[in-house]
Amino acid sequence: MGKSRDAQRFPAMLGGLAALRCRRRLVPAGGASDKVFPATYEGGRYALEHRRVDGRDAPCVILDSVQSQANRMEGGLLELWRSEQLELPVVQVDFASAGLPEFGTVTSLDAPHRIFDAILRDSLLDGVPFPETTIGRSIERASTADATSLFGCCPTVLLLGGWNSTGKRGGLGVKFARCLVSEVVGIDAVLGVRSKSRLDPLRIAAGVEVFQSEGPVGWTSDPASAVHDKGRPRLIPARNAGDRAGRPSVLNHSSVVPSLEEGRGGVTIDHAEQTTVLSVAGLRRLGFPIQGRRSSEVDEAARSVLLLLGLISVEVLERENQQLRSRCVLVPDRPAAWEQLGASGEAPTPLSIDMRSLLEAFAQSVKAARRAGLPWNAEPVTLTPSPQLVELVQESRRRLAERGRFAIDEETA
What we know:
- This protein is of the alpha+beta class and 413 residues long.
- It folds into 2 domains: 3-189 and 264-390, no CATH class; 200-254, no CATH class.
- Helix content is 29%, strand content 28%.
- Strands 1, 4, 5, 12, 19, 20, 21, 22 and 23 form a 9-stranded antiparallel beta sheet that branches. It has a 5-stranded mixed beta sheet with strand order 7-6-24-8-9.
- Strand 20 and strand 21 (328-332) form a beta hairpin.
- It starts with a helix and ends in a 10-residue tail after the last helix.
């Protein structure tokens, strides 16, 4: 597909398609027999389920969820934006200027709830609370029928979904359904066994008690030198269900008896499949009025930008999926297969794309959208955290410091 044709044909695709679909077949980098470790959920469990695969009932495991894939897309887009390969509206909060440099800058591309996140809500633009600014008020008024303001300041929320549950309307705030969904699933998953052991060269006995102290290492085995609570030395707290307070193992000292744990040792799979669907029908539900008036030309211009941004988002996943987590490195064993799904039941037709063509077509579409009168904040909108938000972070730090360096952060668990 020629570069010059891309920008011309994508708007035309919007009217006749139901969706675009991409399938990537992935295999463990270590080979077919190598283990991969899925994401874990409450209690350290894997997301195991049976799915229909090639007409049969197959045991599967979710290697990367829809939510995680969306975050990876945003991470890839953020990298493209920071390297100036992609012009994208971004709202960001500068924590360094507020004396919290370790948090750097939190953007609408990495905040958990995108533009609707409480971090942005509780920040200021030129001293004004973000919700009370012109941008903030326009976001509060946004809807699927009037998504113009969000197009101009956070188009990714129109693709990946969002819920304005932190605004003035609370739970009644506007919801945007996901138009772009991706998931990585391991096929024919067989659970593995997890082994645990450690031989301590110092032969520290497991029965010795250790206590919190104010010394340089933060602990001591001498009760007299420990921090005391009501006259009793404070034990080093357990960090998980397998630990016991005050044991050297909490500090990663002493030996670990060799043991096996069923069902927690990763999985072997025949292969993995990444399935991505970009709903063109979902994009068609979005309206983009300008000064209260809608036109098909403007709607088409905005949707074309979103369609291309969605395709770019999927393409960055090819790189992001290679390292999902420790011991979960996946590589494609064949090219991705893009398909166009018609709205009238016709057979899917292949679609050939590449990142360079997408970026060029996207830049052209953004220019066309601007000519049509749509907003597009090319420069980032930079907020500062409110004094109350800074105080909340600092108070959390103080509480953790008072409880000691080895305390469990239960309040943020």
